[in-house]
Amino acid sequence: MPNLAKEHCSACHRAAAPLTSEQIAPLLPALSKWQIVERGGIMQLQRSFMFRNFAQALDFTHRVGELAESQGHHPAITTEWGQVTVTWWTHKIRGLHRNDFIMAARTDEVVHANV
Amino acid sequence: MPNLAKEHCSACHRAAAPLTSEQIAPLLPALSKWQIVERGGIMQLQRSFMFRNFAQALDFTHRVGELAESQGHHPAITTEWGQVTVTWWTHKIRGLHRNDFIMAARTDEVVHANV
């Protein structure tokens, strides 16, 4: 199983093709709590994280945001009372790049650091 | 037009009825950039705010979160690169309470303080 959390995002060019199902399959076992969702024809990688209150959820959002800034790759983060939903995809290619799987694995590390 | 931003949230009991269209109508002129949306049968008040980058969006999210904590009433906040979407509704009554309109007006004040 690849250790995605140890990888860094690579430059993604507009001409790059989104990953195929065959390319995605070996990456999923490392991300068992993430789901592939499709929104407006774009495949995305999504997970909801649960928290005890709003303040903890907001703190997690802040730390995922800092991770995103550090890598120059940004998710959609929905913050609610006791829950944060993080969605990764690559706007440029309107789909999933290996970078999204790396960032999902790194997001899991942020929440583990939280507990 | 009521000055909603000057009001504070009142305690909302589970037995309270969501506002009717007739009760909502006079509150909307003060919130011209907000939309009433319906999701899963629940009426919600929603606005997207645009920013120059992710960092500014995340900062706004943090400040709306602090406002929410101060009032004990919490929205869903979706943070993306250059955009934050804030959605207010009252979970207890599965609809819109006057508190949601007050918080929408106060959210507008947060963004004005940002510019």
UniProtKB/TrEMBL annotation, chains A, B:
Q: Which reaction does it catalyse?
A: (4aS,6R)-4a-hydroxy-L-erythro-5,6,7,8-tetrahydrobiopterin = (6R)-L-erythro-6,7-dihydrobiopterin + H2O
Q: Does the keyword Mitochondrion apply?
A: no
Superkingdom per UniProt: Bacteria
Q: What NCBIfam families is this protein classified in?
A: PRK00823.1-1
Keyword field? Lyase
Has the keyword Lyase been applied to this entry?
yes
Using the UniProt record, name the top-level EC class of this enzyme in a single word.
Answer: lyase
Task: Fetch the SUPFAM superfamilies from UniProt.
Answer: PCD-like (SSF55248)
Q: What is this protein's record name? A: Putative pterin-4-alpha-carbinolamine dehydratase
Q: What organism does this protein naturally occur in?
A: Salinicola acroporae
**The enzyme's E.C. designation:** 4.2.1.96
Q: Which family does it belong to?
A: Belongs to the pterin-4-alpha-carbinolamine dehydratase family.
